Model the fold of this input.
Amino acid sequence: MYSLLLGLFLLQTAVQNPRAEDELVSAATSLLQADQTERAVNLLEPFLKTNPKARRAAVLLAFGYVRQGKNEQARVLASRLVVELPRDYYTQHVLGLSLSGLNRQAEAETHFRRAIELKPDFGESIFQLGLLYMGRAAFAEARKTFERMIELGYRPADAHRNLGSIHSKEGRYAEAIEELNAALKLDPFSASAYFLLADAFRKSGDGKQAAEATRRFQELNTAEADKRGGFAKGQAFYQEGMQLMFTEDRDFVPANFAKARQAFSQAVESFPQLDGAYYRIAQIDYLRNDYSNALPNIQRALALNPNEAEYYFVLASCLKDRDGAAAISAATKAVTINPNVADFHNLRGILLERAGDDIHAIESFRRATQLAPQEEAFRLNLESALRKLSKKSPENQRSNR
Done:
């Protein structure tokens, strides 16, 4: 059982099938949208090593590198891709982001402009272009880009906030206050907008309104700082739990499970959005045969992050003796998100065989043995399923050869 769940901790072989790109791109996009950049990059890198011509995945990886601050890696990758995909607006945009991160603003502007030429309503390149203009005090050009964002309905709160900043820099405080109030109507929890609003009120001579905006800024800024502090504390407890749970060689340490679980519990108390800690709690509960606690904890992890294949694997493991259909659904989700882990296919095969679907069970067992040919248990499962099917119907046996 321990060796089975160890497959959750390490990705095994790279994705073999280029046709899996659609599913992988979808999963990576969801991870990036959820600010799970490291997980997205870890998913994309091994896929591209095996499938170097998977260009959509490569564009996403370049964007992931930008998010990680690896701008030179992103630039090198995106520079190759714009040659291969000269009319792809998003590739131009990502190259612009990488160049901007390297402080090569003139080159970045060229690629943001090209992205807009290819897709005139692409708001994010318009936004980035506006920020470049603001950075060099080209306020007239910047104003046009943010007004265009409002026309498109793209990030209107950010557009109004930046317009307010421009008006304030140019001494038009009434217009600045109007724009910043528009931004706060759309996003009432923007600390930066309150900061700018306080400054505009103060410069316009309205001390009372400036004091109120400053008070609101301080409240929101403190709340954001508390959230950042909770995240840092939660991560510290999470790392403590990982050190207790695994050896340096990534072997489980069952003697430390109780202390590790306590550390992971402190992690979610400090930062309730830490899905990885709920996953580790569920993993420990499962390994200790405490399925009643494992199930709600893995469900919490999935509610926070529905894009992790390992979470669905644990869910399927918890459900296998409770709800076979739901367990099959969870195992299928795991292999859909990440089809390169043999344990996922093996578990799905076991569940399908229990449900009487021998043909699809054999397909899953066969895939598990292809991914991990050294695993005797997977080979035995395949052979057993083949024998079982042959006894049911010789015709099925022939069709499955």
